[in-house]
Amino acid sequence: MVDFGLLQKYNVPVPRYTSYPTVPYWNEEIRPADWQHLFSSRFAEGNQKGGISLYFHLPFCESMCTFCGCNKKITTNHSVEDEYIDALLREWNTYRSLMNEAPVIREIHLGGGTPTFFSPANLRRLLDAVLETAVIHPAHDFSIEGHPNSTRRDHLQALFDIGFRRVSFGVQDLNPEVQRIINRIQPFEHVKRATDTAREIGYTSVNFDLVYGLPRQSADNVKHTIEQCTTLKPERVAYYSYAHVPWTSKGQRLFDENDLPTAEEKMGLYILGKKLFAEQGYLDIGMDHFSLPADDLYAAFAENRLHRNFMGYTTQQSDILLGLGVSSISDTGNGYAQNEKTIHDYYERINAGTLAVKKGCFLSPEDSYFKQLILDMSCKGETAFGTPYADLIADYTLPELRKLEDDGLVTLTATGVVATTAGRHFIRNICSAFDIRLQRNKASRQQVFSKGI
């Protein structure tokens, strides 16, 4: 059982650590030429080492989910599909010209928005063109985020034929009143139909995204949702904390904040969810991710092969993540770049024949060192300090870790630190001890990060 008092104590604003340095500390402007040089210099090494990962951001949705913090464009006009696919392919061809050999594609993820807004024919057009001059890695992992209301058999079949075997459905909550207030009307029957169809076709891993802390959500809602969802036995579940950030997600201003659970109620939903997942045989991977023991994600976790990037936890170890599309983020291992955030600006840059990168961060040796410690902690639950940057470890990291040790969340060793069983529930907080930029600027965390619970 998670200690309620510790949940209260550590329910502070803290990053999700899909990157280090985290996005608020990136430069607001980077030069495309500098990014091109960094990408091309890193590509060959990463490609030969294990291949590259591709993320395509497909931003269109037919309706606004008011809880959503993703970059999206609301429209029912499907004629936008062709123009956007054309832009993605121009962007891919620009990157392709920077590659000195055929890319080995290890991982593809289609995210959004609503990827299944696009027709199966357009998804095939995009992927066939990308894979035409690429090599598919024998251990590839291709996945898509699907809306249960709009994911049809022909979507799933078209992607399966290309090599997709994993699908993630956004379920959030099954209570009709919660669905009404977040504008996500989605009966359980639609979730079941989409899940059953995926399995009939041959998909081997289904993920459900659930959210706790939504407006009008109660313990009974959460219990009912989890009990219904687990009857379908999704191989993976992500149980996300609702991040109320109306200063960046305008749709969140459309409901009364008084409808949100209190901090204590939200913590209760978190504890309840973890308990119910454990009772149904799901194992806690970390950072709100759960898996059945037979799924590849758990095997990677148990064998210390887990990796984490902007797509979350992954079994793939590729060093290069190339993000394509509006607002997409790329990671070369020693640098990050994010594309323009509006479709207008994205099109303008791509149509001019340049990359659409806008903001980013080129890592210093210090950044790279602490990035690895954070990756180790988030994926393995332990890390070794080594000797570099001993002064920063002593000044910033060890004081935080000693506080965590006093609360029974970590065990300090002669060479590093290990999260305890209780500490596994607080991985984000433990990672923050290695976040030197955050520790140097603690006063700013209230303004830029959501709370841990």
Name a few traits of the molecule.
453 residues, 2 domains, three-stranded antiparallel beta sheet, Arc Repressor Mutant, subunit A, single chain, alpha/beta, nine-stranded mixed beta sheet, pyruvate-formate lyase- activating enzyme, 16 helices
Treating each run of at least 4 consecutive H or I residues as one helix, how many helices?
Answer: 16
Structural class: alpha/beta
The total tally of domains equals 2
CATH-defined topology of the largest domain = pyruvate-formate lyase- activating enzyme
Give the low-pLDDT segments. Answer: none
Within the largest sheet, what's the order of strands?
Answer: 9-10-8-7-6-5-4-1-13
Name of the CATH superfamily of the largest domain: tm_1862 like domain
Largest sheet: 9 strands, mixed
Helix content: 25-40%
Span between termini: 15 Å
Mean pLDDT, all residues: 92
Silhouette: globular
What features would you describe in this structure?
- The protein is α/β, with parallel strands linked by helices.
- The protein contains 16 helices and 19 strands.
- It folds into 2 domains: 18-362, Alpha-Beta Horseshoe (pyruvate-formate lyase- activating enzyme); 365-448, Orthogonal Bundle (Arc Repressor Mutant, subunit A).
- Helix 8 (219-230) links the parallel strand 7 and strand 8 (236-241).
- Helix 4 packs parallel to helix 5, helix 5 runs parallel beside helix 7 and helix 8 packs parallel to helix 9 (263-279).
- It is globular.
- The mean pLDDT is 92.
